[in-house]
Amino acid sequence: MNEERFLILKMVEEGKITAQEAVALIEALEAELSVERTAEWAEAVTEGSTPAEKVGPSQCAKVQNLRDVAEKAGDSEFTRRLEEEANRFAKNVEEAADKLSHVIEERIEKEVKPALANLPSFLASIPVIGEWVGSFSTITEERQGYFAADTVELDIATENGSIEVEGWLEDHYRLVLKKKVRSNGEESARERAAEIVEINETIDAMRIVSKAGPNEALHIRLTVPQDKLYRLKFSTSNGEVKGASLTNVGGSIVTSNGRVGLKDLNGERLTARTSNGSVECDNMSMRELILTTSNGRIKADGFAERLEARTSNGSIQVEPRLGESLQEQSLDLHTSNGGIQVRLPLALQNACWLDASNSFSAIKVSLDDLLYHIREHSFGHNRIQAETKGYAKADARISVHARTSNGGISIEKA
Question: Residue 148 has what pLDDT?
Answer without folding.
Answer: 96
